[in-house]
Amino acid sequence: MSHSQNQHIVLASRPEGELAVTDFRLENTPMPVAADGEVLLETIFLSVDPYMRWWVRAEKSYNDPIEIGQVMVGGTVSRVRQSRHPDWREGDVVLAFSGWRRFALSDGSDLRRLSPMAAPPSTALHVLGMTGFTAYAGLCNIGKPKPGETVVVAAASGAVGSVVGQIARIRGARAVGITTGAEKLAYVKHQLRFDAVVDHKAADFAEQLAEACPDGIDVYFENVGGRVFDAVVPLLNTYARIPVCGLISQYDDAPNGGGVDRLPATMAQVMGKSLTVRGFIQTEFAGEQMADFLEEATRWIGEDKLRYREDIVRGLENAPGALTGLLKGRNFGKTIVQVGDL
Ligand code: NDP
């Protein structure tokens, strides 16, 4: 399809309460043209990730907030449409960070060439990319599961959680997943082959989790916070490790994620059980460990030890709905927006 105009999506307003699709605006803009040393990229796949909810807040977190009127950021798989750069050819498929736009310019410094023959290019946005690496980095550097230990992870059918549980099993640990809904529960147990799975919306969730972890919890990979964390804390073993990766239940303007503020009681457990609680952002480890991860994860996929699932939404205009849906748990697998043809 040829395009005479570009399109992008900007942040139109700061969310008050829950993020809404009306907090975004689709705009038509002139078609960009590559200058000397630049390439013109056409977005094929756009990654939609929970961190985007943090970045639309006014407060600075580990990055600067996205300003009102600024194009939404995000990882993409893109095709080089025009090249005036010696290292890139028309038709190259690349991993980029060009955001919620149909076409973008790049000087090439932020691109990684993908080989569509080696793996489906969309996997560079998840199991062979940022979210897969997040699972690997948090689990291997902080969680450090030993054979026979119990690793618990929530959002277990999702991009990060699914990889956490599968790597835990590869390392010889027991993987206990937390998710909700019959389809996701069955997927985590039978497709991802976790040892046990528990529904966080069940009335007796805490009891079910205790039953699924008869020897307690040695590693709790924290993705969600809130009620799930409340149920995990009493089950933690002495010297348990907690890589704090994300707190999605608290992102969409729910400070305690539906849980109770138990900070004093939790700190008493941290002390009494000699817990290690360590937050991380995956970029801390990426420089040194990404290459090893890509090699191992590619091999695990080939050996059918690492499986993944994509939840593909079609059309750039549907990116805001994909993000609000992700924050409500409506996604089933890695959320990707397909913007252009492969
Ligand atoms: P997912 O693909 O797992 O999608 C998000 C899932 O979170 C939903 O499907 C839902 O799963 C679950 N969820 C949403 N709300 C709640 C809630 N209130 N209580 C319990 N579960 C909820 O997303 P990702 O894998 O991309 O991200 C998972 C976590 O990892 C996020 O917290 C994210 O911020 C974090 N992250 C951190 C990084 C880092 O560098 N530290 C990098 C990348 C991600 P379900 O239906 O099973 O409840």
Features:
2 domains, binds NADPH dihydro-nicotinamide-adenine-dinucleotide phosphate, Quinone Oxidoreductase, Chain A, domain 1, 28% helix, Rossmann fold, alpha/beta
Q: What is the element layout, followed by pairings?
A:
Elements: E1 5-11, E2 24-30, E3 39-47, H1 51-55, E4 76-83, E5 93-96, E6 103-106, E7 112-113, H2 130-143, E8 150-154, H3 159-170, E9 174-179, H4 182-191, E10 196-199, H5 205-212, E11 217-221, H6 226-232, E12 236-244, H7 263-272, E13 276-279, H8 283-302, E14 310-314, H9 319-327, E15 334-338
Parallel strand pairs: 8-9, 8-11, 9-10, 11-12, 12-13, 14-15
Antiparallel strand pairs: 1-2, 3-4, 3-6, 3-15, 4-5, 5-7
Helix pairs in contact: 2-3, 2-8
Bound molecules: NADPH dihydro-nicotinamide-adenine-dinucleotide phosphate (NDP).
NADPH dihydro-nicotinamide-adenine-dinucleotide phosphate (NDP) is lined by residues 49-51, 131, 134, 154-155, 157-161, 179-180, 184, 200, 223-224, 226, 228, 245-249, 257, 280-282, 326, 329, 331, 334.
Describe what this molecule looks like in 3D.
Helix 2 packs across helix 3 and helix 2 (130-143) crosses helix 8 (283-302). Helix 4 links the parallel strand 9 and strand 10. The protein has 9 helices and 15 strands. The chain folds into 2 domains: 5-126 and 309-338, Alpha-Beta Complex (Quinone Oxidoreductase, Chain A, domain 1), CATH 3.90.180.10; 130-279, Rossmann fold (3-Layer(aba) Sandwich), CATH 3.40.50.720. It has helices at residues 51-55, 130-143, 159-170, 182-191, 205-212, 226-232, 263-272, 283-302, 319-327; strands spanning 5-11, 24-30, 39-47, 76-83, 93-96, 103-106, 112-113, 150-154, 174-179, 196-199, 217-221, 236-244, 276-279, 310-314, 334-338. By secondary structure, the chain is of the alpha/beta class. Strands 3, 4, 5, 6, 7, 14 and 15 form a 7-stranded mixed sheet that branches. The protein binds NADPH dihydro-nicotinamide-adenine-dinucleotide phosphate. NADPH dihydro-nicotinamide-adenine-dinucleotide phosphate (NDP) binds next to helix 2, helix 3 and helix 6. NADPH dihydro-nicotinamide-adenine-dinucleotide phosphate is lined by residues 49-51, 131, 134, 154-155, 157-161, 179-180, 184, 200, 223-224, 226, 228, 245-249, 257, 280-282, 326, 329, 331, 334.
